[in-house]
Design a protein that fits this description.
alpha+beta; Chloramphenicol Acetyltransferase
């Protein structure tokens, strides 16, 4: 029987996560949909079982080979979990029937916690949308599923959904690579790192601001910026002020930088449901900016320069070249894991101060609007990224969520206060 089980290689991005995953660095993220009525757990489990065959590349467990980990088809029963106070906790496959995601519920919320080895925010959102639409159908809240914005659970999965999109892009676009490389995988600069007391292991403090999308757009338009550029700039501004508080000697101040993941599907129309995201890192020298307008200008210039197919293709080649290197391919897995952890804990951890990930506008069918309140996106705890920021929007509600493993609330307080001063109505929620 085991020889007939389907298996998948880890995609290019996924290969680092088994080595980095730990209690402090769970490599878990969450997408959740809050309904207007209380969730029925039995109906939710039925919905999960109904859609599972449509997503075979998610219904797997992880196995270790001699040189690489891989994913193997999982035939065990699904489990749904009542939610806990701290989201994005480490997933222990032994207690989850081997599955690398958890479907959780509490009151009106349906949450999906996902190990990054499976997919990115886009893939997880598509899975959750399918799950919630099936739940609402079984529960009698909708009469039919509109497949314009939701994957049809009865469709046969396409091969391209489970392929490594990075390798596909590199193979088809390699002739477009610039002759001179403009980027290495890891830069030489180091940036300011947050310093504060850590909270207890297993706890993860979340502060979420819910606000009208329309107001965010109006403020962004005043600065001639996108919403992502505005929030990234406010994040950088908060880091500049925090560094001034934590490092009294101005001569010791470093640049601040925010890592911003990029959904590559906007540049390459590939129907990939696994990881297909890269990142850019806008940085600011505190001595070169005097106002928020200065920061926004620098962020816009950086994004304009780096969000091009040529630059992103170079990044794709960098990411693929490591895994395809002859020596790396033939190093035993346990040695690879030691090397990955070493690079991440030294050079990798110095490349940015924080992370801002914008899931963007989540589209749902018109007949689900009466049942869905808002969508939320949470980045999980990280050893080196002590206060992350994530965003999502649905209908006219945007959520900005800060997850932190430190006690200080300076960054979310600064950004939400600034947004309120700019004219945005912010409703703040917290899990502690």
């Amino acid at each position: 029987m085991r020889n007939k089980l389907k298996w998948y290689r880890l995609d290019t991005s996924a290969k680092i996560y088994p080595a980095l995953e730990s209690t402090r660095n769970t490599a878990i993220f969450r997408v959740s949909i809050t309904l207007k009525n209380t969730v029925n757990p039995q109906t939710l489990l039925e919905a999960l079982e109904n859609i599972s065959e449509r997503f075979p590349y998610y219904n797997v467990h992880i196995k270790n080979g001699l040189f690489w980990s891989y994913l193997e088809q999982n035939l065990l029963k699904h489990i749904i979990w009542r939610d806990t106070q701290s989201p994005c906790n480490r997933i222990h496959p032994l207690f989850n029937n081997g599955y690398l995601y958890k479907v959780r519920y509490f009151n009106k919320k349906i949450a999906l916690d996902v190990f990054h080895v499976l997919t990115d925010g886009f893939g997880a959102t598509e899975f959750l949308k399918c799950l919630v639409s099936e739940y609402l159908l079984i529960n009698g809240d909708i009469d039919e599923i509109d497949t314009k914005y939701v994957i049809d659970k009865d469709d046969i999965p396409k091969d391209e959904e489970s392929e490594d999109a990075f390798l596909k892009v590199l193979e088809s676009q390699k002739h477009l690579l610039p002759k001179e490389k403009k980027r290495s995988l890891l830069g030489k600069k180091t940036f300011f790192k947050l310093k504060d007391k850590q909270i207890a292991i297993g706890k993860y403090k979340i502060i979420t601001g819910v606000m009208p999308v329309k107001q965010l757009k109006e403020i962004s338009k005043k600065y001639n910026a996108t919403i992502t550029q505005l929030i990234a700039s406010l994040y950088l501004e908060s880091l500049i002020h925090l560094q001034a508080k934590q490092v009294k000697n101005v001569k010791k101040h470093k640049n601040v930088a925010v890592q911003v993941p990029v959904n590559m599907r906007q540049f390459y129309p590939i129907k990939c449901m696994r990881n297909f995201s890269l990142f850019i890192i806008p940085a600011v020298d505190p001595r070169e900016v005097k106002s928020l307008e200065d920061i926004i200008l620098k962020v816009k210039e950086f994004m304009s320069e780096h969000l091009t197919q040529e630059h992103l293709l170079t990044m794709v080649e960098d990411n693929c070249s490591i895994a395809s290197n002859f020596l790396v391919k033939h190093v035993p897995l346990f040695l690879k894991n030691v090397l990955i952890r070493f690079i991440n804990n030294t050079t990798g951890s110095t490349q940015f101060t924080g992370t801002l990930s914008n899931l963007g506008l989540v589209r749902l069918p018109e007949n689900m609007k009466e049942s869905v309140d808002f969508v939320d996106f949470v980045l999980g705890p990280s050893t080196h990224n002590k206060c992350s920021c994530s965003m999502a929007s649905y209908n006219d509600k945007a959520t900005i969520t800060f997850g932190r493993t430190i006690k200080s609330t300076f960054i979310p307080e600064y950004i939400f206060t600034k947004l309120i001063e700019l004219g945005v109505d912010v409703e703040v929620k917290s899990n502690y």
